[in-house]
Amino acid sequence: MAKLTKSTHRKVDSEIVGDIYDKMMHIPEEMNWVDKGFKTPAYNQKDCGSCYAFSIAHAIQAQIFKQTDKLIPLSEQQIVDCSLSYGNYGCAGGSLRNTLRYLEKIGGLMTYNDYPYASKQQKCHFDKHRTIINITTWAVLPARDERALEIAVANIGPIAASINASPHTSSYISKYRTTKNLVYTHMDI
């Protein structure tokens, strides 16, 4: 769940995962958020293991889009630089949960324009007065539950997800995405 911090402090989304199971009887056969207008450019994280930051920033960007119909790029670099004390490791990786805990506690996420991506860890330059969105609540889907994922994507929108990309799961992943070299043992989408 996210809350816009600019002017009116409108709630971006009031749904939480637990409520969805009680309310949903039917989900669409197909859901394509690009068709709904949520289309962001492809990004290159370069040699910085910041997939966790991109995953969370883009999931939050989707919530802003749902509320405003505007694509406002958010700062992955803020997450890389400033969430170390919450258990992330800058360009050496991080977790979605640690990132959400950081954003909930710190008071918000800045825009990409205010804190652009540098593909390297730097000193934290967070400015609470320049945040555009604040995380007020978030939830974790049950592990290995494809139905929960379908329901969340249909009702909440694009979400952040972690996939264990170890050699044991590479054959499962290859069914969905073909890759020649699987370098990381954990990836976020």
TrEMBL record:
Example GO molecular function: cysteine-type peptidase activity
GO terms of biological process kind: proteolysis
InterPro entries the record matches: Papain-like_cys_pep_sf, Peptidase_C1A, Peptidase_C1A_C, Peptidase_C1A_papain-like
Superkingdom field: Eukaryota
Residue ranges annotated for the Peptidase C1A papain C-terminal domain, each copy included: 27-189
PANTHER family cross-referenced by the UniProt entry: CYSTEINE PROTEASE FAMILY C1-RELATED
Protein family membership: Belongs to the peptidase C1 family.
Protein name: Peptidase C1A papain C-terminal domain-containing protein
